[in-house]
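ZP: hey, is the 2-oxoglutaric acid complex queued? I don't see it on the tracker
AM: it wasn't, my bad. submitting now with these inputs:
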Amino acid sequence: MMTVLPIVDISGLFSEALEDRRRVGEDLGAACRGTGFFYLTGHGIPPPLVANVFEAAATFFALDETRKHALAMRRMRNNRGYFEVAEEQLDPNAPPDRKEGFNIGLELLPADPEFDKPFRGENAWPDLPGWRTLMLDYFDRCWALGRVLHRGFSLDLGLDEMFFEDKLDAPIATLRLLRYPPAAAAGSPDGAPGAGEHTDYGNVTILAVDGVAGLQLQTRSGDWIDAPSIPDAFICNIGDCLMRWTNDVYVSTPHRVAVPKQERKSIAFFLDPNPDAVVVPVLGGEEALRRYPPTTGAAYLRSRLDPTYKTA
Ligand SMILES: O=C(O)CCC(=O)C(=O)O
Ligand SMILES: [Fe+2]
């Protein structure tokens, strides 16, 4: 299939030969320094698992409003649970987003010393058989994949291959199920986007899409292009936190979702660092440090999330 976005086969990252891993690191680096958006193949996550997650998401979104609202993100205070259409507004200059969604975060036991900290705490779970187990399985697979990707980034950036490991071992990560109602069923045409123009906040996003068009991104030259789905490939993009961490060498790219002609679903996994991870530029020396003083994973994410919700 023809696309202007690079397709990176990362199977070499699982090789025992350093030269194989380096080669993938170079491919990833080229993509991250260029458009900051790329397709991921050779990732090792079984397509039937992704299909099951899409199916389970559909089952959830089909529940009646009362059951969905019982799990509302507004009640959770840790960026987890259900949000309804028009609750989120990614572009402050556009109407609220025409999408509903469900967020799942890192699952910790209540006895965990971290449990009461910001972004931690419990997940909201619908009462659907097998649902929680499936979502946590997929969450863990995406988390592991995100860490493997960071080994490739590290090789490309000239860091120790394991540099990010201890910064991603208890991450602020969010698995987000998304549903965009079709244009015809979406009520009055108020110019609302599916998802307003934005950049992602974290390090890297691993996105599965269902084949219905909608996702668009802005290339370095300023043109908006479609990112069509490629079967069994993930769409991957760099977020603002990794852009800052690399002193803007890796690029976080603006993107948006147009209101689809038919219902569209996607599953995004956002990998942000550990809350306490110190985010300080790894390239660019003193000058970079003046521009981007040290912050932490939690402080950075908090500063970005607050303006996004109408009802905090
Ligand atoms: O649904 C999509 O294709 C993209 C969603 C997105 O960009 C986001 O939730 O950050
Ligand atoms: Fe996004």
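AM: back. The domain at 7-308 is CATH 2.60.120.330 (Jelly Rolls).
ZP: great, adding it to the tracker
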